[in-house]
Amino acid sequence: MKLYNLLLRFAYWLCIMIAPHLGRARGKLAKFIVGQAGVLSLAEEGERADGGSNPVIWVHASSLGEFGIARPIIRLLKATGKYRIVVTFFSSTGIEALRYHHNDVDAVYYLPLDTPANVRRFMAAIRPSKAVFIKSEYWLNYLMWLREHQIPTYLVSALITRKAPFFKPVYGYLYRKALDTYSQILVLDDESRANLAEIGFDRVQVTGDPLFDNVITLAHTPYSNTVIENFVRGSKVFVAGSIHDKKDAKMVVKLANRHPDVRFIIVPHEISVDNVEAIMRRLKGQTLRYSESDATTSMEGVQNLIIDFLGSLAYIYRFGQWAYVGGGFTPYLHSIVEPTAYGLPVSFGPRVERKVTPLQLQALGVAEIVRTPNELDNWFCSLKDNVERLDEIRRLNLSYMTRNEGATKKIVEAIDS
Questions:
Q1: Please, how many CA atoms are within 13 Å of residue 157, restricted to the half-sphere of its CB?
Q2: Can you give the CATH number for the domain in which 36 is found?
Q3: Which of 82, 353, 77, 357 is nearest to 208 (CA)?
Q4: Does the pLDDT value for residue 149 go beyond 70?
Q5: Alpha-carbon distance 112 to 126, whole Å?
Q6: By the 8 A CB rule, do 61 and 134 touch?
Q7: What is the 8-class DSSP label of residue 52?
Q8: Looking at the chain, which terminus has fewer C-beta neighbours within 10 angstroms, N or C?
Q9: Is the confidence at residue 20, as pLDDT, over 80?
Q10: Domain annotation covers residue 211
């Protein structure tokens, strides 16, 4: 544990040393450093001013993508009228999108760095009665504190593979010890339950993924955006969502340049001037930023619209006929369920080891793993004018979504018991 704390502090100070070389605080790392600097005081002041008498459920998600899993759970917990909900993120994307735009959340903070002193101070500020971690957030000092104070703790939507930290030969024992904290681990599949049983943990329930419930709700939620509607105006639209890195950008840019007759909505995962401008420079067709447009902007001749605000991608997919989802050239593929909820065929990069859904959708024939711009182009060309196949994919997608509904109710019943 001493080594864990030492490495964590070293990584943090390394970030501080690197951050000044990133230019203005636009990158994720710089935003993270700025956020960490004041989060404890912010939490103490916020909870002192706004904290009510209801018990607090603390929900931690790594980023905005993981919050999509937490959202329907929070909605049902809040609907009971019994709880105050405090959400933490490790990523700036969640903080920026959520701080002012979610009625079911009472407070939003960065997760303070997982050191013993930070943990004691942050827990004293928010005073959780229960804790919920999303997917694979294993912060050892937080888990130790929760265990020592006998706080009911849940890991939700977990996919436990043989690559999980519990199975590592050198430091795995620390994480296996941390398992004692969890009142229950709510997993995606039977394989996860079997892997946990192998190391002696049996407080497990297979619930499925609440992300399905969230995106189904969002897909049926009315959404109007005059700028996007002005851009679309009956055109066929390709939506490229959560463009994560240069590899994603290269895939999408080449596709757009090869198909000037198709309109593209491009949504970068990180909204920064440098990132947006880098994409715009490589696009041959006329391109507009959302922030520079309004309902009266002429879209005649405009091929590409870049969305330079956060938080609405799950709604924006409704304007498309095809989709590409970013992050698939890293271990962090973003949500492919969001476009699936609208019946769209979806493509993505090859790194799918942390997900169950991509391989299921590929087996169903409605999704495609693409490794090169040519593979993406071949996939798109096979569907571009194939109305019959697009209708079939839509039916298969919506049926798949319906079959996977219902996880949220099971999870809330476990947490609220």
A1: 33
A2: 3.40.50.11720
A3: 357
A4: yes
A5: 12
A6: yes
A7: -
A8: C
A9: no
A10: no
